[in-house]
Each structure stands twice: as structure tokens, then as C-alpha cells.
Amino acid sequence: MAERHPDELDLLDLVEGELPRAAQGSVAAHVEGCPQCTETIRQLRAGRAALHASGVLQLSERARDGISAAIDREPRERRFRLWETRRLGLVLAATLVLVASVVAVAQLGGVGDDEVGGDAVSELADDGGGEESGAAGEDDASTAVPESAGEPSSGAEPVRVAGPPRAVAADLRAEGFDARVEDGEVVVRLVPQAEERTEEGEPSPEERLRAVLAEREPGPVVVRIEP
Amino acid sequence: MQRHSPDPDAPLVQRAQRGDRLAFERLVDRHQHRLFTLAARTLGSRSEAEDAVQEAFLRAWRGLGSFRGGSLFSTWLYRICVNAAHDQRERRRPEPVETVETTPDARDRIAERELSSELQRALASLDEEQRRTVVLSDVLGCSYAEIAEITGVAEGTVKSRLFRARAELARLLGTGGGGAPSNE
Questions:
Q1: Model-level pTM?
Q2: How far away is chain B from the Cα of A79, in angstroms, using its nearest Cα?
Q3: Contact B159/A12, CB-based, under 8 Å?
Q4: DSSP A198
């Protein structure tokens, strides 16, 4: 063939949907008329499909318990070293400012200066406290928001969650769902896997999917559920 | 790596960084299977993969204070797991080690079956970097940029490895032609 073949990594980008729009037309047109590049594209898709179909392996409960047990054996003091060091630093800084303020008040003997010293101390205390209360606020959001905003609505209306689409799809595959990314959206097909047939009394795949999605943060990624 | 989406793990990570053990357990629950898949597909052994995953979560727990949110938590965790699996491989002894017999549960049996499949044999014929790259991309859904960050190489290298790995897998599994064609 007289025409030069596209770079092989452009063919990979084409398969992945990562090729810049400007280059898509010319590469796709070449592939259409080139048996060699068509074969390369087919191989890339076949290689991807082989692993994609294999899905995520499940860690046994025994091994999962082993992780918790290993963390339990970790020396407790190591876990909080960083946080406690930070907190100790704040206490020391506040104490130093307090001492400096008392000395200044003693030297000047003025009531007004007393207020200035008090402001400085309280300002510093606010800095430290603010960090804690701000973080606590995020915690509240983490427990309250997903249950409401992340809850999928009924019917075929899509669910919106946070995270890159590929990561969301991978998360759902890790939970045993047939999830894939199509046009920037996550599509989930509700077919129980062979090893995980729904038993009587257990939640249906759709109920389980909704529960999984409800745990995620709400966001811009559209998740479509296909029966 | 620059991120455009909020990290869905961020609230739990922040709680875990303040010593909230339950929050960390939820992170373990959330990521355990993907880390296991990454380790198992890379190492080809269920028991070694379990050890690598346990080590990865331990390292994560110890190092939580150093995680600043510059990348997704999952990206950070995958990187730790890749290193733990690599260390596990380095420690691998030339002869099989006697292990304590445990009663395999259903998940163990499925994992064992998967790890003795034709697909795993094909994966085992790739080099470690290609294997890691293709699992991160095609099983775990990581982007080029994420894989580059996890494996510590340029995106171009990631793409090159992914191209070679997929073409080789297709050839070995009989779904491809005669291997990756030349480009001229």
C-alpha cells in the first residue's frame, strides 16, 4: 500500500477513543481501506476483550479477615503520630503566644493591650479549631450526602455519581456487574454472573446495584441501567 | 497527575487519616478485590497475591499521613500494591514452599480456576511491565495517565506496552493474526 500507515499508538488511541478529534477522520479512513491496519485494530480489541471478560477476581473472606488482623497487630502509637504531632505543635504555639501576651501586658500595664493579646490567642486557637471543625464538616457530608444524592431514582432514569467513568465502571465490575463505558457514560447490563446466581431471599441484581451506587458520592458521571 | 473529578474516596480517607479505623476498613472493603486482581494477575498465584494485598493495605495504613490527595486514592493504592507485588516476586523462592492447608472457599476456587486458565498462561508469557499495564487498563479501567503515575513511566511508554501486550495476548489466545504488524 502506497499510503503510509498511521502510527501504531494512534491505532491504540482510536480503539480507546482517545484519538484527538482532528485526527480521527484521516486515521479511520485509512483503516477502512487498509487490511493490515484493520487487522491490528481487531487484535487490539480482541486483546482488550479477553481481559475485560475475565473481570475482577474476588478476595476470599478469610484473606479479608487477615488484613484486619494484620492492621490490629500494628503498634497503635504509630498510627496517630502525624496527627498528634500536629496537634502538639498547635498547643505549643498557643502557649508561647499566651506567655508573650502576658509578658507584654505586664510591661505595658494597659487594659487595651490585654484585649489585643487575647485576640491573638483566640485567633490562633481559631486556626487550630477551624481545621478540626472543617474536617468534621466533611465527615458529616460523607455520611449524609451519598445516601440521598447518590441514591438512584426509580425507572430508567440515569444515576449520576462522582469519579472518572472508567473507574466507576471498574468499581461496578469489581462488584460483579457487567459495566462498560460508552460515549463517556457508564452502562450497566443487569445479568447475574454464573457464580453469583441470585438465591431466594437475596437482593436482586438491580437492588444490589442501587445499593452500591447509593454508597458513591454524587457527581457528573451518568450511569445507565439496562435490564 | 491533574485530576478533573472529585475523589470518591476522599471523605473516608480524611477520616482514616485522623485514625478512624472503621473508615479505613471501608476503604479496604471498597478496594480489596481490585487489588487482589492486580496482584493475582501479575503474580499468577492466589496465595502470593493475598500476601501482597495484605502487605499493600498495611503499607497504606502506615503511610496514610503522607497521602496528600494529589492523585486519586485508588491510584495511590494501586501504586503501593504494584510495589508490594513486585517485592513479593523478588522474595519468591526457587522451590515451592510448604503452606498451611486451609479450606478453600468458593472465591478461592474461582480464583484458582482463573489463575490456571489459558488467559493467565498467556498473561504469564508477557513481561511483568506489560502484564501490569494491561491489567491496570483492561481489568481495572485505569487511564493512560493513571497507569503512568502508578508505574512511574511516561504515558508514551504506557501506550507502547499496552499495544504490545494486547497484540501478544490476541496472538496467544488465537484471537489475533500473526502478532503485532510492523508499521511500514
A1: 0.62
A2: 6
A3: yes
A4: P
